[in-house]
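Progress narrative, work stream C.
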Amino acid sequence: VTHYPLPQHCIYNQGGEFISWPFQQVLLCHHIADHPTTAKNPQANSVCERMHQLIGNSLRVLSTLHPPQGIADAKQTIQS
């Protein structure tokens, strides 16, 4: 059971990790509408950057409090 519902939209920049097929497949599989931003869009980029910072900080805290004991444990941490 997840703590947060799936998003309805995903706003992302033109980075290779977001326009790749695996990422696009995740969006399609979960029925998440994609909204790529244009280059040099400070307002949209600030939203993306803040989200990335939040996710990075959360993962850092989780891995510090409960270090994964193997690959399966690391995958479980990311899934939660």
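Work stream C, second folded protein:
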Amino acid sequence: MTLRCLLVDFNSYFASVEQQLCPELRGRPVGVVPMMADTTCCIAASYEAKAFGVKTGTQVAQARRLCPGIVFVVARHAEYVRIHHRAVAVVDTIAPVEQVLSIDEMACSLPMGWTSRERATQLALRLKAALREALGECLRVSVGIAPNVFLAKQASNLQKPDGLVVIDAGDLPGPLLRMQLTDLTGINVRMLARLQAHGIHSVEQLWRARREQLRVVWGGIAGEAFFDRLHGLASGVQAANPRRSLGHSHVLPPEMRSTEGALAVLDRLTQKAAMRLRREHLLAGAMTVMLKLTRRHGERLRPERGARFAPTADTRALLHTLRELWPGMVPAGWAPMKVAMLLHDLRQPGQTSASLFEGDVPGSDAEQAALWSAVDALNVRYGRHTIYCGSGHQGREEAPMRIAFNHIPDLETEG
């Protein structure tokens, strides 16, 4: 095994960007929130706040109790995206960026001649210095270097903030033994339960498990793939998987927590998703709508409905499906708190056949495609609300840009 991958992981990215842009926040505990409300949660916390136990998912009211001096700021996703693109450009001048894993992580292939521990470490130090000079002192990164992306990610997690850890073949499994099973990428609570059911309770036991045993735990070849990643046998940087789904979600502000308000926001989310489909030259063949509802005594309900249809990227066709799914999704006495929609069964236009029933699928002909191309061009040039379907008028100011774990918004189409 040789060192092949260098992974860059920005530390407390959203909060660090805010501290860089606002010098008065530097050195202070900061919580980044989607909106100013005690009922919402922190989507990021600075290291000063983390020292008091505040972390991603901590409610604002609880964060105040844990850290009375905390400062809350509303997330500015467009700024995070802009700085992300600058960061990728800087990193790419030093080590080729092969895969952007998320808004705050990117994986690079080590150039030929830089795969020894000494030279890879030198390269990482150059990279950290270049990022500090280009982006500012608050935007620190932890760098992991290893034979593949998985191990490089674990290495980057071992020393935060501002760390640099190399895991070479001769080091394994030593550095990993300091971690809990759930610290390893890909092992969530469900997988932890499955591992424990098979007698695996520690990283050491996981390391000693045979490939065939992990195949049984995972229920297929995914277990063998995990074995290879863990033991450094998988290749350096994996090719990106094709997109399988595309969607948006939004926590409703108090004034939109009604049946009409929730539908208006879903309408807005669907129009955004349709534009993304066209931007990425994709068609969707299915839609799922999901809600989070509450009522007076704290009860919760999570209704979900879905439908399949002829593959399309036509906004009106998708809105028609939304309205077919909607009736009865919010029972009397329940208040919607969060809405989400997901488009799946994605494919390239050349991977589908035209409808046998002309006119049944709005947007299936060239004229409709040309219409939406013109609409998208006008919205990119003059702003997102220049032209939109009137059914989404009530929710047009809702659901601003959000950064999901595996999706970096396009500022032109989602800004």
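Confidence is low (pLDDT under 50) at residues 358-364. No further action is required on this item.
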